């Protein structure tokens, strides 16, 4: 096999924006255009045996990028000797709930408008044969800090391509526990309806400032989800929310996925479809401001979560320090992940070379003038997706 051909990287490294399970996210500046991107940096050694995860994410994003204004676009992907890089829209407007809490007021119509926009994007994702599987406020970002900025669905790392005509359904447990549908926990097979359930949880959260299945333990939370055990309580938080909005949440949180509305049907619900906004009026007839109660609940939950996290961290450290072999394995794995992510962060993009294992004459550069794809990323993106259960 000939030695790989390399070309200079066309991006300059910016600040680190965040860190995920297997990757870090850095700001990247395209040298020729000066345009900023959010770049997912994935250590190649860490991804050994998990290549299907990257292949899947690229395949999903190639299918839907630029197809809807409220979905992040994958602009470029390439490989260096150490890392894989995926360059996305840089969303600088912050997360959904932070943005709400920073507002001076917040009405039910605002919540309905947000849910309508997100559901329209979800309908597009589903019509493209894809299920997202990790819809939650943290994955809903604003493109810019501007007041009228687009809200964007991000992070398609858990998404899957599921053609409408295929009857097989996914059975692995994945997602973020409080937003996961009953069928995920039950392992009875899941598909696009899990995104509608997650949107029901998101809507509840947008109206009250907390999620419907909050419990003291993960086991209790899972049992509540499986049973659909939630209430519109305490009443002080829901007295200012219309019955129509509650009905919408109830529809999305239908336990049976066969009876749960599709994204298209959710958009036809009168809470989203009616031209006249639904709200509980103040004494003067004006819509009630939901922000005071929403912020109060959100801040209380944040404080509780911080305390709970500290206790869990102490308990986890104590268990890892013990002699149990699983504790040692977990500790070793955690340390390996940390080291690999540190390695990823240390690579300076503008000093790196992009590797091309294929013939450069057959290489099509990106439309923005960037160096384009490397062999591994291209193979991952172009491979036929044949995900197996639990793969």
UniProtKB/TrEMBL annotation:
<dbReference type="InterPro" id="IPR008271">
    <property type="entry name" value="Ser/Thr_kinase_AS"/>
</dbReference>
<keyword id="KW-0723">Serine/threonine-protein kinase</keyword>
<comment type="similarity">
    <text>Belongs to the protein kinase superfamily.</text>
</comment>
<dbReference type="GO" id="GO:0004674">
    <property type="term" value="F:protein serine/threonine kinase activity"/>
</dbReference>
<feature type="domain" description="Protein kinase">
    <location>
        <begin position="11"/>
        <end position="272"/>
    </location>
</feature>
<keyword id="KW-0808">Transferase</keyword>
<dbReference type="GO" id="GO:0005524">
    <property type="term" value="F:ATP binding"/>
</dbReference>
<keyword id="KW-0547">Nucleotide-binding</keyword>
<dbReference type="InterPro" id="IPR011009">
    <property type="entry name" value="Kinase-like_dom_sf"/>
</dbReference>
<keyword id="KW-0418">Kinase</keyword>
<keyword id="KW-0067">ATP-binding</keyword>
<dbReference type="InterPro" id="IPR017441">
    <property type="entry name" value="Protein_kinase_ATP_BS"/>
</dbReference>
<dbReference type="Pfam" id="PF00069">
    <property type="entry name" value="Pkinase"/>
</dbReference>
<feature type="binding site">
    <location>
        <position position="40"/>
    </location>
    <ligand>
        <name>ATP</name>
    </ligand>
</feature>
<protein>
    <submittedName>
        <fullName>Pkinase-domain-containing protein</fullName>
    </submittedName>
</protein>
<dbReference type="InterPro" id="IPR000719">
    <property type="entry name" value="Prot_kinase_dom"/>
</dbReference>
